[in-house]
Amino acid sequence: MMRVNPYLYGALAVILLVGVVSAAQSAGFWSTDNKYTRTGEKVQADPTNVDTIKGWMTLGDISRTYRVPVEEILAAFNLPPDTPSTATLKSLAESKDGDFEVSALRSWLGRRLKTTK
Amino acid sequence: MGAEPGAIKPKPKGLFAVLSVQHMRLAVQLGFFAFIAMLVIRHGLVPEGAAIRAPSPEAYCPFGGVETLYRTVTAALTGSGALRFINHARLSNLVVLIALLVTAVVLKSSFCGWICPFGTLQEWIMGFSRFLQRKVPALRRLAKAARAHPQPGLLALDRRLRWLKYGVLALILYYTIAVGKMVFRAYDPYAALIALPEGIIWPAFAILIAVVVLGFFVERPWCRYLCPLSPVIGLFGKLAPVKIERTSTFCKRCNICEVRCPVGLPVASANRITAVDCNNCLKCIEVCPRGGALDLRLRWPWARPAMPALVVEVPASDAAR
Asked: Dihedral angle at the C-alpha atoms of B241, B247, B253, B257, nearest 10 degrees?
């Protein structure tokens, strides 16, 4: 049984916590953002799996990944034709234009993928 | 700094007079609080899609790691091996959770008492409450009366309510696994606090207000009654070889440690503080007037304590009553 200095205790608490996090960061096992991979590249949806579509992705991202013209997506959900391709899916769902929902987009793309196979 | 065992501790001199353990703890708490505050401000100011990336402060919450653990582990075992997380959780949550559990296994609840920004906020609320009690005569009288006549009913309620947090953890884990989403976020007062620049999360914001108000009357109410991370830390903390121990030979049962304990633990009647509620703030050790009576000690979990837990030495003055 050994007495532990309280100052050392406090210092160890910080060193252990920060040390483990730093070690993980050094090993590349760290990401604070699901939008980017550990190497810094933007995460893309899986072209074969519509469940990987996220609300933060843009119309342009979806168009490129699933090879669907932006105009076709806008027409399918009654969105204004001048909607920019940089608009995020989340912002479209929150806007009062059209009847867009991210889940509805997943379903629509899922059906489209089956018919184009 | 040191004192003969059982003797009154001398007053600290030199640097130790200025930099007490509580001062050091405050500095550590301030550092982590400022770090999270910086993340909150940055994340609120930097627009989405900007060239500069400003991570959400939620990325550093260890409880996010607890919530996503089931999804991440099952997806890794059954899928392609790629890491998957529930909404609002990231790899960083998992890493901070691992760091916290490593700290808990060595130093018990040091995260709660030294690092957690929400615990720090609650301490400052109680500090402000005590300041008001000193300055406002009516509040001073009320607080004095409450301390002089503690209500047994309220004390019993306090003890019973501490079991709530285990139920909270169980509910959160059940619904998170069943629904596959971060269901607790809508009720998490810490999430409501750090997401304030982006908007108000209901009913989490209402719970935050309730915790702040209650914090004026009860020290660390969220930690005591509802924090779901506390049982997780407590479970791993049972393995920690470093704990606060009382040596009854030198203890004079003045009970100052119990008065000072922010979570109301019966420090003066325990030989070793293993309670989940202990956040290792070390206020009891600092305030104890007797050398060697209350200390942090390193003892391996399989080693037996120096005195059996049921034996309590009664001071001669008490025995004579």
From this structure: -30
User: What is the DSSP secondary structure assignment for residue B303, as one 8-state letter?
Assistant: S
The set of residues, in sequence order, having a beta carbon less than 8 Å from that of B275 and lying 6+ positions away, is B265
Is the separation of the CB atoms in B150 and B319 below 8 Å?
A: no
Long-range residue pairs from B84-89, CB within 8 A, at least 24 positions apart, any chain? B85/A34, B86/B176, B86/B180, B86/B181, B86/B182, B87/B181, B87/B182, B88/B58, B88/B64, B88/B182, B88/B185, B89/B64, B89/B65, B89/B182
Cβ proximity of A57 and A109 under 8 Å: no
Q: Could you tell me the two tokens for A33?
A: 């953002």
User: CB-CB: which of B56, B96, B285 is closest to A21?
Assistant: B96
Q: Work out the minimum CA distance from A76 to partner chain B, whole angstroms.
A: 26
Q: Taking the CA atoms of chain A, what radius of gyration do you get in angstroms?
A: 22
Beta-bridged to residue A49, according to DSSP, are A46
Cis peptide before A69 (omega within 30 of 0): no
CB-CB: which of A10, A20, A32 is closest to B92? A32
Does the beta-carbon distance from A2 to B48 stay under 8 Å? Answer: no
Max distance between CA atoms of chain A, in angstroms, equals 75
State how far the Cα of B72 lies from the Cα of B50, in Å rounded to an integer.
29
Q: Specify whether the CB–CB gap between B56 and A36 falls below 8 A.
A: no
Q: pLDDT by residue (tens digit) across B124-147?
A: 999 999 999 999 988 888 888 887
Predicted confidence band of residue B2 (pLDDT cuts 50, 70, 90): low
Q: State pLDDT tens for residues B266-307.
A: 999 999 999 999 999 999 999 999 888 999 999 876 665 554
Q: Residue B244 carries which DSSP code? A: E
Instruction: For the beta carbon of residue B34, count every other beta carbon within 10 angstroms.
Output: 11
Tokens 């609840």 identify what position? B109
Q: Which amino acid is at B61?
A: C
Question: What would the two tokens of residue A9 be?
Answer: 């205790």
Residue B297 in 3-state DSSP?
strand
Q: What is the pLDDT of residue B318?
A: 42
Chain B contact probe: residue of A5, A8, A12, A16 with most B CBs at under 10 A: A16
Distance from CA of A45 to the nearest CA of B (A): 13
Per the listing, tokens 């019973």 go with B160
- At CA B118, angle to CA B112 and CA B119, rounded to 5? 40
